[in-house]
Design goal:
heterodimer, A: 201 residues, alpha+beta, Glutaredoxin, seven-stranded mixed beta sheet, 9 strands, B: 314 residues, mainly beta, five-stranded antiparallel beta sheet, 14% helix
C-alpha cells in the first residue's frame, strides 16, 4: 500500500527539487574545521581525535543565551564536561556589524564576566563553520565523538523558552548525550530541534 | 573592570558586556516606550485605525498589547472568548504554535475564579516569515489570539467575573526579545450574556482559526529524504481554493520552507516536502494546518491529524 501510494505520488508530483541544504547529520562524520580562538591559537577538529567535542553556538546578546548563562546552566555543563576530559568549544558566527559580533578581547571579557570556562572560544566571523554545520540558533549544540562522528545535533534542553525558571524542569540533552557516550551507549536522543535566536550570519 | 570598559569605549565596534541577570524590565520598558512612539506613525497605513488607535493598548517591547473579550457581560455556565491583542511595530513579529526554524510560541497562563476554566489558544492561520535564511511561522501587524473561557454554572448575577492573563511571548525583528504582560478583565455576571464591541474582531479571527473536520482520511509517511502526505478526499474548501498553504503543526517533521501542495484529478491533495533537518522519528500522527484562499480573497483553514509511519528502509 505504502509503495503504491509512493509510486502514485512520484508520478503525480513534479518533485519540488529543493533538497534540504546539507548540514551536519547525526551518525555521519562531523564537518572538519580550523578556527582561531580568542587567544590566537588555531584549533582543528582533527586535533581532538580520541576526545569527545561539544560545539556551542554563542551570541552574548541573545536572550536564550543569557537564559542559560544567567542561571549558570551553561557554565555548570562546561565545567562538568571539561572536568571529565571533554573538549567544549564556544563558536561565535555573528558577522561584523551584527548582533553578538565580538572580537577576541571582547569575547574574553564576556567569558570572564560570566565565569564561563569552555576549552576555547572560536571566532567564525565569516560563518563558514556555522554554515557547514547548519547552525541555526544560539544556542545550537553539537556533540562529536572521539572518532569524529556527529552524535548530537540540536537544542541545549527540552524546554524551548527564554525563561530561566524553565531550566530545572527541562531534560538537558547535551548532558544526556555526553552521559551516553561516556558509558559507551548509543545516544538516546541524537537529534532535537534547536531553539533560540537566529545565528546572525 | 574599569580597564576593560575603557578599552571597549575606545574600540571602533564597541560591544557592551552585559551583566547577568539581564536588564530589568523597567529599563527595557522605557526603551520600548521610546521605540513605540517613533514607530507609531509609520504603522497607521497597515493597521486598521480602530485597532491602531485603541486607547486600551499599552506599550510593550516593540509592540502594544491589550486583553480583549467578546462579551461585556457574562452569564452563569457561559463560554466566551478572551485573548491578547498584539499590535506589532513595523518589522516585528511573534510566533505560532509551531514557531518554525527559530522563535517561540506565545504562552498563556490564566488566573480565574474558582470553577472557571480556560481552553488552549485558538491559533489563527500564521504566515511564513523569512529572515536570515530561516523560515518561521508567526504573525506581524495586528493579531488577536483568543482562548475559550468557561464561566462556572454556579456564578450569580450581580457578581463580577475577573480573569487575569499572564501572557509570555518572544518578539523578533532580526533580534529577539522575550516579553510578557499580566492583564485583567473584570466583567459583570448578568442573567443573559451581552456581547462587547470587540465581538466582531473575535468573529473575524475565528474565521482564520482552522476548522477540524471529522472524517478526513489520509496518511503521512517518510521516505528516504522527504515526508509525503495525501488527503484522500479534499473537502470543497481546498478543491475550490485559489491558493493553498500548508503548515506543519507537529515540529521536527518537515523543513519550514513553503510546501508545494497539488490537487489531483482524483480529488486528493498531495504534498511531498524535504524532511526536517531535525527529523527524529515519525509520531503515530502528524498534525497539519492547511490554509486555503477562496475566490473572495479570504483565507480559511483546516487542521487534520493524519496517521503517519516511517517507510524508510531499515
Amino acid at each position: 500500500m505504502k509503495t503504491l501510494l509512493a509510486a502514485a505520488l512520484t508520478a503525480s508530483l513534479a518533485f519540488a527539487g529543493m533538497a534540504a541544504h546539507a548540514a551536519a547529520t547525526v551518525g555521519q562524520p562531523a564537518p572538519a574545521f580550523t578556527l582561531t580562538d580568542t587567544k590566537g591559537t588555531a584549533h582543528s577538529l582533527a586535533d581532538f581525535a580520541g576526545k569527545t567535542v561539544v560545539l556551542e553556538w554563542f551570541n552574548h546578546e541573545c536572550p536564550f543565551v543569557k537564559k542559560h548563562y544567567g542561571a549558570g546552566n551553561m557554565q555548570k555543563q562546561q565545567n562538568a564536561a571539561t572536568g571529565s576530559g571533554v573538549v567544549w568549544l564556544v563558536v561565535n558566527s555573528s558577522a561584523a556589524g551584527k548582533q553578538g559580533h565580538v572580537n577576541a578581547e571582547q569575547a574574553n571579557a564576556i567569558l570572564a564576566e560570566w565565569k564561563a570556562t569552555p576549552t576555547a572560544f572560536l571566532l567564525d566571523h565569516d560563518g563558514t563553520v556555522g554554515r557547514a554545520y547548519g547552525a541555526k540558533t544560539t544556542p545550537h549544540m553539537y556533540v562529536i565523538d572521539g572518532e569524529g562522528v556527529l552524535r548530537y545535533n540540536g537544542a541545549i534542553d527540552s524546554n524551548p523558552s527564554a525563561d530561566p525558571a524553565d531550566i530545572p524542569g527541562a531534560t538537558q540533552f547535551v548532558e544526556a548525550a555526553l552521559g551516553d557516550l561516556a558509558a559507551n551507549r548509543p545516544v538516546a536522543r541524537g537529534t532535537t530541534q534547536p531553539y533560540g535566536c537566529s545565528v546572525k550570519y | 573592570m574599569t580597564a576593560l570598559h575603557a578599552r571597549f569605549t575606545a574600540n571602533d565596534d564597541p560591544v557592551r558586556v552585559p551583566r547577568l541577570p539581564p536588564p530589568t524590565a523597567a529599563v527595557l520598558a522605557l526603551a520600548s516606550a521610546l521605540a513605540a512612539g517613533a514607530a507609531a506613525s509609520a504603522e497607521s497605513s497597515r493597521i486598521p485605525p480602530h485597532i491602531d488607535g485603541d486607547p486600551r493598548l499599552v506599550a510593550a517591547l516593540n509592540a502594544r498589547v491589550a486583553l480583549l473579550a467578546d462579551h461585556a457581560a457574562v452569564s452563569p455556565g457561559q463560554r466566551f472568548k478572551a485573548g491578547l491583542r498584539i499590535v506589532h511595530d513595523a518589522g516585528w513579529h511573534t510566533y505560532w504554535a509551531n514557531s518554525g526554524d527559530s522563535g517561540l510560541p506565545t504562552r498563556y497562563d490564566w488566573t480565574l475564579p474558582p470553577g472557571a476554566s480556560a481552553g488552549p489558544i485558538d491559533w489563527p492561520l500564521p504566515e511564513r516569515l523569512l529572515a536570515s535564511g530561516l523560515t518561521n511561522f508567526g504573525y506581524s501587524d495586528a493579531l488577536l489570539l483568543p482562548a475559550t473561557i468557561t464561566v462556572p454554572a454556579g456564578a450569580q448575577a450581580g457578581e463580577r467575573f475577573r480573569a487575569t492573563l499572564r501572557a509570555r511571548w518572544l518578539i523578533c525583528e532580526e533580534a529577539c526579545i522575550p516579553d510578557e504582560a499580566t492583564l485583567s478583565i473584570d466583567l459583570p455576571v448578568e442573567t443573559a450574556p451581552r456581547p462587547s464591541k470587540d465581538a466582531e474582531e473575535f468573529r473575524a479571527v475565528a474565521a482564520r482559526v482552522p476548522a477540524r473536520p471529522s472524517g478526513l482520511r489520509g496518511h503521512s509517511w517518510r521516505d528516504a529524504t522527504h515526508v509525503a502526505t495525501q488527503i484522500d478526499d479534499a473537502p470543497p474548501m481546498l478543491r475550490e481554493a485559489k491558493r493553498i498553504e500548508v503548515f506543519p503543526l507537529t515540529p521536527q517533521i518537515v523543513a519550514s520552507t513553503r510546501i508545494d501542495a497539488r490537487l489531483g484529478p482524483d480529488g486528493a491533495l498531495r504534498f511531498r516536502h524535504p524532511a526536517s533537518e531535525y527529523f527524529d522519528r515519525m509520531p503515530a500522527r502528524v498534525e497539519w494546518v492547511i490554509g486555503a484562499e477562496g475566490e473572495d480573497g479570504r483565507w480559511r483553514a483546516l487542521q487534520v491529524a493524519l496517521p503517519a509511519d516511517d517507510a524508510r528502509a531499515p
